[in-house]
Specification:
Blueprint (H helix, E strand, L loop, with lengths): L14 H6 L2 E9 L5 H4 L10 E10 L4 E9 L10 H7 L3 H7 L3 H12 L5 E3 L3 H11 L11 E3 L1 H7 L12 H4 L11 H17 L4
Parallel strand pairs: 1-4, 4-5
Antiparallel strand pairs: 1-2, 2-3
Amino acid sequence: MTAFDNLPETPALDPADLKAADTIIVFDTEYTAWDGSLARGWSGPGEFREIVQIGAVRLDTATFEESGALDVIVRPVMNPALSDYFKDLTGLTDDRIRAEGVTLAEGVDRFREFIGVTQLVLANGNDLRVIDWNCRYLEMACTLPPERFRNIRPMLQDLLAGADPDFSSHTLAEAVGEPVTGRAHDGLADARSIAAAFRVLRRNGRL
């Protein structure tokens, strides 16, 4: 299995590509975590960045209004029981995983189908790398089109100069003065927070 840090990073978004697109996908993932795992780089015993949720929205770039949404729950297999830390952080529960969870293969297929012909798929970070690592760990092909994925974080850091440099997807709306809605660290709510920030930046003539 390829080490996580050896996988390619998602290229940064060129704002010119955003202006040229008619439609974009914004997505966010949630993956297994434990108290202190972020600081440890998931190096503790049995710690893996295992996908549990993929949330995405489709946006018309004329207004950045939402025209479709996806919320996929994935059953973890390396650590099938969620940590208390993760449950408190995300609001996801073992009961919801059992009721709604699908395999990673089905989750990736659903995400690929949602992307369809959309040419720009955006995340606030290297979420594609996490999906890719999960696929490699389970020895399955990652059928997502990597050439369409971009990391919006460098662009947002330039646009939000003076804001908290460690902003999360969920705090993006708040960083531009928009009310925060939904629960932090919920994949779909975080994708919608990014979309809300895009709408404000567009109204302000900054995007």
